[in-house]
Amino acid sequence: MNTHSSTNDFPAGINQAPHPSGISHWPDINAVERASKRLATGPMPKLTEQHNAQVGRWFEQHCGISKRRAEEAKQRIPGGVQHNLAFNKPFPLDIVRANGAHLWDADGNRYIDFIQAGGPTILGSNYEPVLSKVITLLRECGPVTGLFHGYELKLASLIHDFMPSIELFRMLGSGTESVMAAIRAARVFTGHAQIVKIGGGYHGWSDQMVFGMRLPGTGLLDAAGIPEGALSNTSEVWPNDIDALRKVLQTNRERGGTAAVIVEPFGPESGVHPVHIDYNHQVRALCDEFDALLIFDEVVTGFRAGLGGAQGFFGLKPDLTIFGKCVAGGFPAAGGVGGRADVMSVFAAGIGGSGRRAMIGGTLSANPLSCAAGYWSLLEIERTQAPAVAGRAGDRLSAGLQVLIDKYQLPFVTYNLGAIVHLHTTGVLQLDVREPGAIKQVPHRKEGLEDFGAAFTAEGIITLAGSRLYTSLADTDDVVDDALSRFERVFRGVEGAIS
Fold first, then answer.
1. Active-site residue among 202, 279, 415, 470?
2. 151 catalytically annotated
3. How many Å is the maximal CA-CA distance in the chain?
4. Per-residue pLDDT tens digits for 177-197
């Protein structure tokens, strides 16, 4: 079933940002949910043995250096991988060059880059106009001084111009740190302890947020090494279930109150479970009713959805906004939290004011390198209208994938939220853990997803976990069409594909 909406008309208040939006249409969420359920409850699609063998041979013949270095890395790095995005079946690739829409590994193989560092490089990799400004900064000042630099003010002011809800902005070192800070500020400001998240969402790996990750309803499943007490004030509700959210807020009121509801505004895991177009407005209304703050996690959607972020698209103001690598255009040591001046001021108390202070810190936070990179990246994003360009590339990619899915009569699900493209092949992320036996399917379907990811890589396409693709300013029609021809070769290798 085609899950793409055929209209560009949005409800009142939606897509009213002053800058061109990266979102040309909103998917038919009901159709997405139906297709996702069919995928997750039906036989798991898989590649033929012949195609899997072909993929294995490709890695053996073309990735010798990466394979050797991956083995060596296991001697000094736990599991041989430093961060989750770097995992790739059968082994991590040693990427030595990035430029525009492409990556190159140590063996000289070129790939179309749809991972884009997890989403922040909306301009494409190693964007020269920004790179030259950063190099100038490094020569003049160096990456960090531990003291104030003018780019801190320039960046904070620019973010406020694009997102008026960011009255004050505090830069930090990562999205995880930013979530921690936002929750601490919410608790200090409201005097309440409870935090509500949407099941399946990822908000970093701090103790209080490793709850209900990736799959809604999994609660403490991934919380190894975390005392239960650290999560005693965290709860989750099912995506798009506004009645469940109301019920939890009512229960929390009896327990002392909710400090904040934190959401990924497009839906958990960057829209793996996409929300209905009016969902965030309903959440906003409930937060107001129950005296809870609304926190938007815009680590991915910030500037990718448009210069005004998801909040600009939806036409509403969260109380606090979380940023990650996007705030520095993909350069390292970057994240931040911004929002209402009265809430954000709890970070200043004890420094420039009085009252209870929400303690946060970090010597590398707001370093000159990250602030300069963020400032110039945002100016280039504005000049080039990168979100709109990347969003059109996402439209073209998702529509082309749907054509291929229909052509080969596959149960795959694809849709896009502008420059965030989803391609679900095994249904592992769509499993409903409330259904008997669903949780037992996770390992099998996860392995199948990794097989698809490896097959995409062998065809010269880098994806995020085999199921998410981020487009950028660098993704021309030729790049997207090239990618579609490569995807088609993989789709032809699926068992039962109709050719």
1. 202
2. no
3. 70
4. 999 999 999 999 999 999 999
> Residue 40 has which token pair?
């997750």
Q: Do residues 376 and 404 both lie within one domain?
A: no
Torsion of CA 444, 449, 455, 459, to 10 degrees: 180
Cis previous bond, 443, omega within 30:
no
Question: Which one of 113, 297, 319, 451 is the catalytic residue?
Answer: 297
**Euclidean distance between CA atoms 483 and 111, whole angstroms:** 10
Cβ neighbours of 60 (radius 10 Å): 11
Out of 28, 325, 451, 470, pick the active-site residue: 325
Q: Is 297 a catalytic residue?
A: yes
Does residue 416 share a domain with residue 324? Answer: no
Cα separation, 338 vs 178, whole angstroms: 9
Last residue of a domain, one of 347, 365, 383: 383
Other CB atoms within 10 A of residue 109 CB: 18
Helix (H, G, I), strand (E, B) or coil at 373: helix
What confidence tens digit (pLDDT) does each residue in 52-104 have?
A: 999 999 999 999 999 999 999 999 998 888 887 777 889 999 999 999 999 99
Task: Report which of 114, 92, 46 is spatially closest to residue 461, judged by C-alpha positions.
Answer: 114
Alpha carbon distance 112, 325 (integer Å):
21
CATH at residue 465: 3.90.1150.10
> Does the residue 15 lie in any domain?
no
Examine the residue annotation and report whether 133 is marked as an active-site residue of this protein. no
Contact 451, 494 (CB under 8 A): no
Domains in the chain, number: 2
Backbone angles phi, psi at 215, to 5 degrees: -110, 120
Flag whether 41 is in a domain. yes
Which domain does 433 fall in, by range?
29-118+385-491
Residues 192 and 279 in one domain: yes
What CATH number is associated with residue 378?
3.40.640.10
